[in-house]
Input
Amino acid sequence: MKLTIKQVTKTFKEKKALDAIDLELTTGVYGILGANGSGKTTLMRILASVMKPTSGQVLLDGQDIMAMSHEYRNLIGYLPQHVGLYKNFTAEKFLKYIAALKGLPKEETDEKVDEVLELVGLSEARRKKVGEFSGGMKRRVGIAQALLNDPKILIVDEPTAGLDPKERIRFRNLLSKISSNRIVVLSTHIVSDIEFIAKEVLILKEGQLIKKETPQRLLKGIEDKVWTLVIDENEIPRYQSQYKVGNIARVDDRFQLRILSDDQPDHDAIQDHPNLEDLYLYYFDEEETA
Output
């Protein structure tokens, strides 16, 4: 199975949200990384066929997804950033309702609802009202509804926004677990969401695809650009004005800065191993990430 994005452009009035995107996706997890406004959600909505590109096309095994219509929609599961849940429905009732909307046969619905509730760890909470759920539990209901039709393509937009670290890890592991026989596209600006599960990372900036590589290759590209430097507190503003500064950690009565720079920022600066947070900072300025 192959999903091909060919010269996809999306324009809103005078603004290009996406600019001639070319991609090929096969089975596995793809993490789309970008600052707010980079075009992540627009691309996800086009892949989910809820938005048409201004130009270009998306092909599934050579067929245009717009021409495939319902045939394509039956193959996808979509979890938007803000999913509408009926707070007075129990988890079980909500999933059965969504199953009916998706056209699942009644004789299969009970078994499928049981299956997805077990998969997302909500079997014991199945008869509790969704309005009483935590944010993490609501996101799990969201992924459960996306999996009801056993999709071959799963599209999830900012799935861990607002979740605590424990729920984020649970969600990450779930996506990794279900990716063995599907294409999973995960949009996020939280780099730890994709660091360990993504087959490839796609970096979007101002509507353009600027990188598509494995996490390992992306990190190799900045392995000589990460430095640590211990300085006095009064020196911090100078380095922040001249360099991209990541973590600032207190070390006794001084401070250790993690600096992104093509050149050694100070003769006392020591090169360090990069991580995906460094990568994010390298490609996106602070004003973009705010």
